[in-house]
Write a sequence for this structure.
């Protein structure tokens, strides 16, 4: 995932705000011209969001949905980061695993839903499994590509200065890996949030997914779009959070690879 | 030369070993778990041969893929010019970036209930899902390619008196090509994902069949469908890479 997207620039707010305002105006006009059941205008969507926030419904739903998202994402990080790193640094591991990773990367993860139902049922465990399966292949691919591109001169310099295996890892490979580890985290987070709502729509409908299904069957497009907007804002917030974390963890990267 | 090709064939061998190990693990795990939970590879392979001949699954898959191409094509047709425009013009970048950022993080699955309200569950619904899943990734890669064009090349073209069209054809297009191929293949992966997801949601086409095979007694038909999807995904990405190599041989060199 390239750096500039998935984030709203904090600098240069003016043109961005204008763009958002124009988009919202177009949507408002379109929403007023079409029947309310099909496309609610943003004014009604935001009013609905405010009401759902005030009643505590939206935060509760989001918190409940985050549970399986975080569990699945955490497991995915534990598996994908080491495997991807090894694939990038050790040629035979890459050759051994590459066909499998390619195969799973090419498989639409949602197609695993029937199998996950057989193995994990319809509830919490199944949702965690889907989040895990959806985040892992993309993160491995990013990690492997990043680890492969670590500047060999850094590694050679470390070796010629007499760094041992552990020192080499801690002082050279780890700092050199941070940028793409964060790229992998961002890519994985997008996939995990994606999987979070997919799971709630495809397994037993709960939390935000249940709320969407209820709104859809009642032709309540304001309620539907309110949940959608929440998901979108949550996604952007997570991206921004990871970016802040990256600046904190790897301050020397600032302004280098963010373009 | 000979050494390089020897090490390459050794690499192939390791890759084949990886596949072989996975198949053996699958077979052993499948025998232990039983076909109701996880059919062993031998069962699935037998099922695969039946499915190839049954005249139901493959046509369903073909129809689904053809319908997918409409949304995918539309995604490319909109995404490439939009991405290039954003990459070359500051005003377009500012105007579209917030919306592209938002759409990229938005899950396609979450759009499905809304799209059903808007389009029903027919052809336009599936096309819209695939389009929305494809277009933003194409925009991003085209945008990155367009931003990365070396200004010195543009300056050189201008000083040799190249017109707008010539500059586009001789400088922009070759520089963009690797990005466009990446965008096309990432977009295709997303298009296939979206197609299967949309069909599973409304239970039609190949995705619908897949969802229903989950209810059968043995998992062999289900795993067989998954295998088929995997092969199609791998073939599609490989096909695009081959096409890229044919159309622009410098592309592979630039990547190596």
């Amino acid at each position: 995932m390239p750096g500039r997207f998935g984030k709203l620039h904090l600098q240069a707010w003016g043109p961005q705000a204008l763009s958002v305002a124009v988009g919202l105006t177009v949507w408002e006009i379109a929403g007023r011209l079409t029947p309310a059941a099909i496309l609610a205008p943003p004014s009604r969507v935001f009013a609905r969001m405010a009401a759902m926030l005030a009643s505590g419904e939206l935060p509760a739903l989001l918190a409940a949905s985050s549970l399986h998202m975080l569990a699945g994402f955490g497991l995915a990080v534990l598996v994908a980061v080491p495997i991807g790193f090894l694939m990038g640094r050790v040629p035979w591991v890459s050759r051994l695993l590459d066909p499998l990773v390619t195969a799973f990367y090419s498989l639409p993860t949602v197609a695993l839903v029937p199998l996950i139902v057989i193995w994990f049922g319809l509830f919490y465990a199944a949702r965690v499994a889907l989040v895990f399966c959806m985040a892992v292949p993309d993160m491995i691919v990013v990690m492997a590509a990043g680890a492969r591109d670590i500047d060999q001169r850094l590694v050679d310099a470390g070796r010629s200065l007499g760094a041992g295996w552990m020192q080499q890892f801690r002082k050279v490979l780890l700092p050199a890996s941070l940028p793409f580890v964060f790229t992998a985290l961002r890519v994985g987070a997008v996939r995990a949030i994606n999987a979070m709502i997919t799971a709630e729509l495809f397994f037993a409908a709960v939390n935000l997914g249940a709320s969407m299904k209820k709104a859809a069957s009642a032709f309540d497009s304001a309620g539907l779009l309110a949940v959608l907007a929440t998901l979108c804002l949550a996604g952007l917030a997570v991206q921004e959070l990871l970016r802040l974390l990256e600046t904190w963890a790897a301050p020397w990267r600032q302004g280098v690879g963010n373009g | 030369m000979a050494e390089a090709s020897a090490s390459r064939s050794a690499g192939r061998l390791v890759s084949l070993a990886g596949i072989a190990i996975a198949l053996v693990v699958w077979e052993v795990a499948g025998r232990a778990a039983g076909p109701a939970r996880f059919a062993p590879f031998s069962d699935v392979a037998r099922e695969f041969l039946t499915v190839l001949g049954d005249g139901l699954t493959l046509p369903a898959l073909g129809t689904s893929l053809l319908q997918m191409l409409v949304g995918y094509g539309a995604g490319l047709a909109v995404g490439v010019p939009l991405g290039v425009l954003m990459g070359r013009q500051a005003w377009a970048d500012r105007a579209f970036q917030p919306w592209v950022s938002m759409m990229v993080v938005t899950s396609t699955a979450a759009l499905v209930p809304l799209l059903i309200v808007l389009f029903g569950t027919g052809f336009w619904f599936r096309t819209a899902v695939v389009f929305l899943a494809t277009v933003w990734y194409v925009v991003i890669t085209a945008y990155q390619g367009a931003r990365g064009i070396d200004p010195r090349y543009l300056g050189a073209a201008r000083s040799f008196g190249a017109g707008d069209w010539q500059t586009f054809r001789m400088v922009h297009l070759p520089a963009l090509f690797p990005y466009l191929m990446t965008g096309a293949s990432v977009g295709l992966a997303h298009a296939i994902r979206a197609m299967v997801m949309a069909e599973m949601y409304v239970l039609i086409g190949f995705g619908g069949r897949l969802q229903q095979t989950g209810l059968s007694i043995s998992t062999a038909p289900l795993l067989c469908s998954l295998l088929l999807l995997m092969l199609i995904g791998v073939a599609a990405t490989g096909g695009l890479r081959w096409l890229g190599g044919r159309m622009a041989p410098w592309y592979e060199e630039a990547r190596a």
User: Anything to note?
Assistant: The longest helix of chain A spans residues 165-202. Chain A touches chain B through 69 residues (CB under 8 Å). Residues 64-253 of chain A form a domain with the MetI-like fold fold (CATH 1.10.3720.10). The two ends of chain A are 12 Å apart (CA to CA).
